[in-house]
Specification:
The chain has about 280 residues and is an alpha/beta fold. The chain has helices spanning about 1-20, 25, 85-95, 130-145, 160-170, 185-190, 195-200, 230-240, 265-270; strands at about 45-50, 55-60, 75-80, 105-110, 150-155, 175-180, 220, 245-250. The longest helix has 20 residues, at about 1-20.
């Protein structure tokens, strides 16, 4: 009997150790989907920014047509999901949401340690702390460069946690959160109820902890049949924290296919105040 108990303890301990050791790989796998290069007619520049810690963030900026001679109406910062290519995400916003407008700058950068297939990978190791700090850094760099009249953010999946964090520390004029997560912590707690997740998790991405204080005009665009994030995490956790923020369900989608919904461009236009 003692041998069986010891074997069980070792088995459980080994499994817990495996989860803890590999949590970064599970949450931030450091890979993205492949997308074609943007059409050269879209006026973009692959761009590298060096952080105060010496890491280099690689990404793309869809440039306003006359950056130095005409006002930049909006700067849009895109924060993709954890396997979502930032190049494709930014191009989608440029072509499908902003319809190629020339007075808008749209930027997206690979998270630390992530590739995008068109530039070198960003250097460093991905983490919640790094992603939050880099969002602030990119905001500061690009607002100083473009001096936009407005700054807006669009996040998808784990990128919604990054955008939400940014809204608590910088001025945003609008924010759209698609396939939002209340927190990685909550997902893990519900999946591994017998583990002290709160003590073991290094990257909680707990938007639910800050959502009540967000004053930026925000829209939650979600799939009722998400498959990864339970609907209640959006409707009963996030929305309960800030009931004035509208909920927009997109039927017949899941956590991945929401990005491909033909309704999404129009919903993002509405969320970002482009179709009023």
């Amino acid at each position: 009997m003692i041998i069986l108990v010891l074997a069980a303890v070792l088995l459980v301990g080994g499994f817990v150790g495996f989860l803890v050791y590999n949590q970064q790989r599970f949450i931030l796998p450091g890979r993205v989907n492949s997308v074609p290069a943007p059409d050269v007619s879209l006026n973009f520049a692959y761009t590298a920014l060096t952080t105060p810690q010496g890491e280099t963030l690689h990404g793309i900026i869809f440039l306003p047509e006359q950056e130095n001679t005409a006002p930049v109406t909006e700067l849009v910062l895109a924060f993709p999901g954890n396997t979502h290519n930032p190049i494709g995400f930014a191009q989608f916003l440029k072509t499908e949401v902003y319809n190629g407008r020339s007075d808008v700058a749209i930027a997206a950068f690979s998270y630390r340690g992530y590739p995008n297939g068109h530039t070198p990978p960003s250097t460093g190791t991905p983490s919640q702390a790094a992603m939050f700090a880099d969002a602030e850094f990119v905001y500061d760099q690009l607002t100083a460069r473009f001096k936009p009249q407005q700054v807006k953010a669009v996040g998808y999946s784990i990128g919604t946690a990054v955008a939400a964090h940014l809204a608590t520390v910088r001025q945003l004029d609008a924010m759209a959160l698609a396939a939002p997560i209340a927190s990685v912590r909550r997902i893990a707690q519900e999946r591994y109820r017998w583990l002290p997740v709160g003590l073991l998790l290094k990257h909680p991405f707990a938007t639910e902890d800050i959502f009540a204080g967000i004053e930026t005009p925000t829209t939650l665009i979600y799939s009722p049949t998400d498959g990864l994030v339970p609907e209640a995490h959006v409707t009963q956790v996030l929305h309960a924290q800030n009931p004035s923020i509208p909920l927009v369900p997109v039927e017949n989608t899941n956590h991945v296919s929401l990005a491909l919904s033909p309704r999404l461009p129009e919903l993002l236009q509405q969320a970002l105040g482009l179709s009023r």
